[in-house]
Amino acid sequence: MIPAPLAAAGVCAAAVLLDRFLGEPRRGHPLVGFGRLAAAIERRFNPADCRDSPRARTAGLAAVFLLVAPFTLLAGLAARGAAAPLVEALLLYLAIGARSLAEHARAVATPLAAGDLPAARARVAWLVSRETEGLEEGEVAAAATESVLENGADAVFAPLFWYLLAGAPGVVLHRLVNTLDAMWGYRTGRYRRFGWAAARLDDGLGWLPARATALTYTVLGHARTALACWRWQAPAWESPNAGPVMAAGAGALRVRLGGAASYHGERRVRPRLGAGEPPRAADIGRALALVRHGIWLWLAVILAVALAGGAAGA
């Protein structure tokens, strides 16, 4: 029988390799169906005439529980017995989005490097929630770089972290809550109250993985700059998790991120992150390389810890 730590390392490696060679399912991705279900629940639980009521927060919390709890429980029940490693590898593979992130980021970098700014603006809109129509070249590169760094935490390292900590239920819990935050976690009239529970729960689940990601970027990049940016710039960022991730990532790459951006018709002046020059098209690829190298580092550490634990228990 394979020791549990080695089995867990094998599941992580299998999930990463499945994502690398297969990418996301083109049809029938479970998260697409979950998103449709979440949209239907939101329409039922968040009617227009109740969105300013304090009850909207309670309704949002109930909606999160109704959507997340059954699937998390089902994941725990499915990942039992002899087939558990296969189920865990499949669920972790579906939660990881490294290849999809790379494909979307390269679809921005390629036209941007070729001087096709309209095409780059159109493609970066797939990655970010800000308005992209009037972005200049450096702003497009910055938006894509920020997205790569932040999604490296949410869609790569956090699933691995939660699998190691809580198995298949942890993976499903985090991925579904993160999806609901992406759908409802906006400070607009529609979601300001209703999306509060999803946003706060996502912050809580992402707190440790975000700092593990920031440490990963620091180790693999310009460490001194990354540490300084993480320490001094991250606290000024609105998100408690995106701040450390993007500050450390920007410092590791020695590029300057943050600054003004428009969201839902509102222009926000965000704090500056990182150091050096504004990013260019090539820096999007450098951010992807940082995430890719981080994946291999995590797998190497997971395997080393598993082997050390097996040797100690022998």
TrEMBL record:
UniProt xrefs under InterPro entries: Cobalamin_biosynth_CobD/CbiB
MF annotations from Gene Ontology: ABC-type vitamin B12 transporter activity; threonine-phosphate decarboxylase activity
Keywords: Cell membrane, Cobalamin biosynthesis, Membrane, Transmembrane, Transmembrane helix
Pfam families (alphabetical): CobD_Cbib
Compartments it resides in: Cell membrane
Gene Ontology biological process terms from the UniProt entry: cobalamin biosynthetic process
Pathway membership, UniProt: Cofactor biosynthesis; adenosylcobalamin biosynthesis
Membrane-traversing stretches: 59-79, 160-177, 295-313
Top-level taxon of origin: Bacteria
GO cellular component, one term: plasma membrane
Membrane topology per record: Multi-pass membrane protein
Chain's role: Converts cobyric acid to cobinamide by the addition of aminopropanol on the F carboxylic group.
Family: Belongs to the CobD/CbiB family.
Stored PANTHER family: COBALAMIN BIOSYNTHESIS PROTEIN CBIB
Protein name: Cobalamin biosynthesis protein CobD
Organism per entry: Thioalbus denitrificans
